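Lay summary. Proteins are chains of building blocks that fold into shapes, and those shapes determine what they do. In this project we predict the shape from the chain. Here is one chain we studied, written as its sequence of building blocks.
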Amino acid sequence: MPKDLKIILEKIYKTYNKREFVHPDPLELLLPYATIKDREIVALIASSLAYGRVAQILQSVSSVLKIITISPYDFLMKSSFQSLKCAFKEFRHRFADGDQLSSLLFSTKKVLKKYGSLNKCFTHALDENDTTVMNALIFFSNELASCRIKPGHLIASPQKGSACKRMNLFLRWMVRQDDVDPGGWEGVTPSKLIIPLDTHMYKIGLLLGFTNRKQMNMRTALEITCGFKKIIPNDPVKYDFALTRLGIRKELNFENIRQSFN
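And here is the predicted shape, written in a compact code that computers can read:
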């Protein structure tokens, strides 16, 4: 690991952590929502469907947003499970069908009615002594999987060792606030966040020597997060967006980043 790693990371952050580099990314679909009660719902939908080709993700999330109208919160509060199943009976996103999406949305409604917001549900299980969001993440995921028809893979289980990339991506969007991440949640400090581990961040973690594990699971995500914490303890997920642009935007090349670290 180079001695000037933080200088290199800050340079990459200042160059690519800008709104102009957000497209194509599901993050762009929640930016227009000014109110937190709507934004957190859109963020959950967008992150839950954030797998596969990015063009397909954007298309699938956009199709959901067209149905849930201007205020997703108001839409959910007025919806029954049957009305959701009817509204999304034609929905498909790779392995997800309308029943799984309806289950996710109805479980979200139940959480909103019980706690008042997704934010309050999450912080309900977050202790100030926790070093990461793991305990709250387990609780939050279980609450969202409580519908009689399970949302299946749309909500990953930290208890089973999943890296929970999509849920950690959701948390990054809602907790952090800078030129890219809109933030808005209260009671969760960025220092407790876990890296949203995908293939591109895994390669970077290996390159930087933060992990040598062969599996992309939660233990690996925590090791890579720990590596970033040594550089920036208060915000270990800060560089996630900028570093993973190389896996999304065609004009950014992984070899260019590799050369910066050598």
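What the prediction tells us: The two ends are 8 Å apart (CA to CA).
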